[in-house]
Model the fold of this input.
Amino acid sequence: MADSVAVTITVNGQGREAQVEPRKTLADFLREDCGLTGTHLGCEHGVCGACTVLLDGDAVRACLLFAVQADGAGVTTVEGLTPSDGALSPVQEAFREAHGLQCGFCTPGFVVSVTAFLRDQPNPTDAEIREGLSGNLCRCTGYQGIINAVRLAASAEGNLTSASTIV
Ligand code: FES
Ligand code: FES
Done:
């Protein structure tokens, strides 16, 4: 790859080095170079939120960033939210419990966005939850199950501590 660029990105706590084309998106880097296919691609132009990951703690759209822009940074994908013992994170558990999953295609993006949202806003009102979810689209049915899941995650004992450890 003649015009490739070397990048080093810490993904879910693990250093990843790769040679990438400058035009390669962070989403494609995560899926193709790291094998982390939990980051989904829906619209690929910044509208749906399915590709949401945390970049140094901030929720970002991985389809709108080039991998080279994340060089030297830390990325957390939906896979990185799962505790090492294989249990579900509090947000994942709440989605399961409150039927926040429908087809599941949008779910990784929602889970990542909600994890960052509750870390920053641990006691949200319903209006704040709706606003917090507004960057993620679900094509299946309504959003009520998802909103219920966010409420449940916010009220779950221990959630705030766990969510606040995500960087
Ligand atoms: S795939 Fe990135 S916002 Fe839709
Ligand atoms: S659960 Fe199907 S698009 Fe969201």
In short: The pocket of FE2/S2 (inorganic) cluster (ligand 1) is lined by residues 41-44, 46-51, 61, 63 (CB under 6 Å). Residues 8 and 17 are 4 Å apart (CA to CA). Residues 157-167 have pLDDT under 50 and may be disordered.
